[in-house]
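Minutes, methods subgroup
Present: GH (chair), OT, SY

1. OT presented the first of two proteins processed in the latest run. Sequence and structure tokens recorded below as shown on screen.
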Amino acid sequence: MKNVSFIYLLIFATFALSADTISATDPTPRALLFAGFNNGRVSGDAKLHIQQVTYDPNGKIGEGIFVRKDKTGSWISSDIERIDTRRGSVAFWIKLNNSSTIGLPQLFNIYPGPPYIEANFLPDRPDPKNSAVTLPGEITFTMRLVPTVDGNYSIEEKVGTGGFSFRPGEWHHVVWTWQGMNHKVYLDGTLKHKKVFSSPMPPQALPTFRIGPSFDGFEDVTIDELGTYNFALTPSEVTAAYSATISKPVAPINPHGIDVTAEWGPGVGKVSIAADSGNDFEGSAVKYIVNVYRDGKLIKSGEITKLLRGFGETLISIGTMTPGSYFATVKLVNSRSMVLAIKNSSSFVVPKSAWLGNSLGVSSRVQPPWTAIVVNGLKLSVWGREYDLRGGFGLPRQITSQGQQLLASPVALEIDLGSGPIQLKPSSLSITSIQPHLVTWQGTAAGQGITASVSGSLEYDGMMLITLKLSPTTGPITIKTVRLQTVLPSRRALFMHTTTDQPYWWYPYKSAVPSVPGVFHTNLAQKPRKSTFLAVVLFSDDDRGLEWLGENPAGWRVNEALPIQEMIRDGNGNVRLQNNFVNKNFNLGDPIEINFGYDATPVKPLPADWRGGRFGAAGGTSVFPNNDFDVYWDWRGQSTGGRSNANFPIFSLVPRDSNLYKTATQGMRHEGRKVAPFTNFHVTIPSGGHTWIDLDPIKAETANDGWISVPTKGDADYWVYNVNNALSNNTYDGLYIDEPEPY
């Protein structure tokens, strides 16, 4: 038996060496900073900048330092990397000296980054809403990325201890670890919270690392045994740090190999896989092989090939996620295709659901009052409008609505290499498919080393979508600017409406177009939420208009401090939308793609009595019997008695008792009025009785996402299913959707 074991160990050792599990570029697990604060010294690290330090003789192990917001506090900084953002840990002891705080209590931060990182705390404190209630203390760690023009950040993630008893005189040990997308927080040796962040940290943290508060106010704590590490402490190592009685850094005990996260999207049938090699394999990691299983059977495979310091991620389409148990197996391989490590993701269960994956409302049938698309060569006609592609390479040359031309000149793509716009010569344009509900086309133009191609589509309701692809014809080429010009005659652009991702009614820009020549509006002149991008720009006269639309500036190469969308009155009176796809020097080596679209209005005929609407007024015979626009906007149901928080919560889609609601509103319906309950599109709180609501991954697609999250496909499935049932059962006549922020 001993001989067998010995042979096995020899084989394992030989494999380990041949598989390059040990590499000169694998980062050795170590402390990047350790400060024990003993014997009147912060640390033996000579590269720390000590502005001020006040020692607490009653530290956890020997001395500690006071962290305060006055002259008795401590401020220490370092301009070298103290946080390894690919994977790492922060560990320290903390004692609250005074339960009073003023301002934001802060322990340390990295500023300006990226990433901007800070550690904050709150002690036990009275609830400001009820002084008889004591709120528990907590310690939180925050990561922020991508600063926005309004001083906020596009990405903000937090993880912390959660509530615990944090009172003066008590010591607590806190550890924050991260690897790839996974973050964990330990309190007094016990794992308290773990969270998958929406984004990995960048591969390197930019200085400065600062110990001590950055804001005015009041706080008084002592910290001790502060260490930052370039590896994610394992539970055993956390226990060792918590149990230590000698002031010294945590020594690595366990292997520090790969970590895997899998985020599942049952609504869209995709899984996002992120993998990190850990310290053990960073130098030898070349790619990951991913296998996805349902109920133990392989259903899809993929690879992660673009690794940065051993980290990579990918999105794998797995099709309709039928009920079952899903997991992913990730294999890490080296340059010789040898498997270095294997790890499974946690399992994910998709339960049976009547709503997930439904196709209600999805049809290619042309619905009245619209008509089938008419194709006459390169002229495409839908109800009330015509799109003319003749003479170009796929961008609209003219758009007509209600018999009136909307463009003063063809939509133009201007590319400047530094000496003025180049000439793009169209080489091809053809219709590629014709169906009653959808027509597609392809076109190409080229000039001076650049090829521009257009893939376009027109739907029967008049929405035109375009994918513009720019490629180097032979080799990389430097571009100064790329602009898309959409020009309307003055008489067709009397008014303008634009919106960012902050679409409350008082934030969109809506105005008569000024008569004075020059730039009169840009994307930077409008209040953003997370982005200054204008997703909608609409010019119109009294009867018709033209909308330019785009979901986001993906593919654009821009300096966001400069305008990327400009509205201009030209000297000849024309009104121009200039989209600056490229506004800085850019080397076009690989192709880029940019998506946008146009839609001329009106999109369908309006009823003759559309101005005779009445909304919200309760009771009384209909002023306009059987008018679709005479609607009772049902808020709390005081007048009907049918809507209350008990039977029909304000932000729900359907009442709990449909018969009760129908009975309460039948009198109003007999008067010829329609009933449309109020709800918010950005809020989806499912009604009671759904067993799946307790399953977090599904709940994530149907929960209250707040004001900034675009609903997922699963979220839309839930909406459509419930509203369709309510309409089919005659529970109500329609749904009043308020504050449709995500769209």
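2. SY then presented the second protein from the same run.
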Amino acid sequence: LSKTYESLREEFKRKKVNTKNVVVIDAISKTLKEVTEEPENCLFVRSPGALTELSLIISKFLKYNYDHLIFDSVNNLLIYRNKSAVERFMLNLVNKVRNSKTKAVFIALPLFLLLGHVNSIHHLRDHLQPGHIAPYVQSPRQVTLLGTLATMVEHGNNRNRLDLEVHKILLHGKQHSWQPVHGRVRLSLHGKVDKLQPGTLLLIRAKVGPVTNFKTPGAFNYKGYMAAKGIFTSGWIKNRQDIVSVQAPEERRIRLRYLPERMRQQVADFIKDHLPADISGLYQALLTGSRTGIDEETLEHFKATGTMHLLAISGLHMGLLGLMIGSILNWLFRRSEWLLLHTYVPGLALMGTLPVLLGYGFVAGMNTPVLRALLMAAIVLSAILLRRQFDLLHLVAAAAMFILICNPLALFTASFQLSFAAVTTMALFLPDLSGTRLQHREVPEKKGLIKRYTSTPLLISFTATLGTLPFMLYHFNRFSLIGPIMNLLIEPLLCFWALPLGLAAIPCIFFAPDIAAKLLQFGSMGISAGQYCAATGAALPFASIWTITPDKGEMLLYGALLLLWYFKNRKPARILPTLVLGSCFLIFHFTQGLFWPKKTQTSQVTFIDVGQGNSTFLHLPDGSRILIDGGGGRNSSFNAGERIIGPYLYSQRIWRLDQAVITHPHSDHFNGMDFLISHFHPKILYINGDQRSEGNYNQIIALAKKLGTQRIIPEAGQVVEEGKTFRLAFLGMNGLAVAANSPVNDNCLVLRLTHKNRAFLFPADISSKSENILIKKWPELQSDVLLAAHHGSATASSPSFIKAVTPSLIVVSAGKNGKKYYPDPLNIAAWQQERITTYITRDQGTITCLTDGEELDCTPYEQKYNPARL
């Protein structure tokens, strides 16, 4: 129903398929042309819509008890006949197949996609099932949990984390009792944690709530990431004393179930105790899959050099390990004449690698990424055993389908997309590699050997980079220009040196710890060398390129161009010019914002959800891109610029900032500016000149100076940007009558944007004292949208100031940790009494306002809240 007999015959001939016992029912050819001759093994139907004729012919062949009936495809019938007719036909056909000895395969892509969609919804709604813990903690609250430690405790630089399989929950408060529940909770805590063994029954007091995201376009979807792991609830343990081990008899099934995680815990603890902190973190990532012990600087080095995937247990690790073990076993087995005569030695060697790979998977905890890597390696090895390794694309598809059946949400994870994009591209463009066999070859000359062992890995790395490029840019907005070369240098150090020695050390940990320590110390030399290479490569100029987020059209065009390149030899005269023109168009479309900023007739003001902090992005009619503040929270380990604001700007296809403003030197307003200045290169940075700084403020100012960004301390009334219909200017507080000993907040830079008849006011963190000064200085403060001063706290937003501004909408930039005070409940009540619409970023998410000077629409990120038309 989808191909003609002639096309099938050519395909069978090309793949050398014996068609002696194959009969084709062709319902396509007669719709295209007149058929004069009918081959012996083909029957023609006048159209796919001729269901009666089709049914009679199929019934005829079912009587002969053919082994298989392949029906390709059900969805094509829907093009020719209505849904009810197709349903009756399929029901009749299925009943006939059931009454015969023929096995039928019905290809139905829409049905497959529908089942996948339904399965995904089922996984997403798993936490809504009766008895799940999630409905009990729909908002953060204190609880006591009774559950089993499901994973090893991962020790990070700033916090420890663990997953608890919950059995019972006790809600703190009046008239609450223990409730039986199920589900997994991710818990975190500071401080030293004693060695807890997975499978242990624990009683834990914690503050628990739903897993949340920053509600900002482009920001990492942590909620979806955790949902793919089956975790919908997270919490915080105040101190170690809130964890109590419960003595209970341990069943054998419990020991077996948690055996992989217990092994993983013991290996991680041994590595941590016997190696320096910087080395142990990398070695733990390589052997156990936990990267929590790696410091941010080292992670950045591996990201910048395109070798971050080497620190995750992937199909690459499994494949290289299997290749190395298989090659050694193949060489050993070929020494035996009996094995050569009575067995298939390459297959026997590959079978010997499976126990090693399985053991590696156990040590790594047998979690989803490890299972995916193990599955892909097992399928490829099995295919080689069955001598079907030339159909690598089919093997990749089989592995992907199996994973998605088990966990459909894996489709939306970066690791799944990157893994299968890399393997698929290699299968398409490296056919010789896809058919690699472990077979005896004559040893080439030394020069040829060196060339072979350098060019082949380089080609593999380049091809994988080519295939994963759009996904890398979509998820991470960066790629490494030196990635293929750095992979060539670092892969052998980690995968052929450190990894085998680490795996050899694992059994020794339990029987000969001294030998294990020596093996790990020797393996750590490879880790150190790899770490040095990554640091050296990351220091090179243009080692890593940051870009905007590609849109779906660009990603589809990129994929189409790759396919054109794959088919270029079939019709080069047509394909090559199309390929060149398509590539030029794609590059132009992707980079045009870098040279020609988008100009419109509207002003866009975006209040970005950065948690407990402030950041507002302005995109003005003349194309100017201005950022007011760039901070979120006061956690030094969390860079709001890199994690939230930068990804938002990239998602909006912003390559550069023209100007940036730090309203005052409090970290919740600037702690992401180092990243933003480095990657978005604003020409001008406005600061208030206050020397009472905190955090890394002085380093940010020094960085701006180093990069050539002009630093300006503006006075009240100074214009930032002005056009025919708009004006952005400072209203204070520099140059106004602010007391010399006033707090830092009262010296903030205050800005106001006007666009024809509409206005926005940005008062930063000023208190009511500075608000009164503004009222006296600027009689015209009226603004349609007001960013609540000092996050809506009790020290600001005085009644007189609100009366002077008369806003129709107040936006409060506040995070979940300051819910009691930001905004102040009295302020909320006063605004409600005045019937002023209020948006809070922790609830509504990022707020985007768009105006042409007449109409003004403000849309929250959370779609369940109605947009405000002012």
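Chair's summary of item 2: The chain has five domains: 5-107, 131-257, 266-546, 552-592, 603-865.
Next meeting: continue with the remaining queue.
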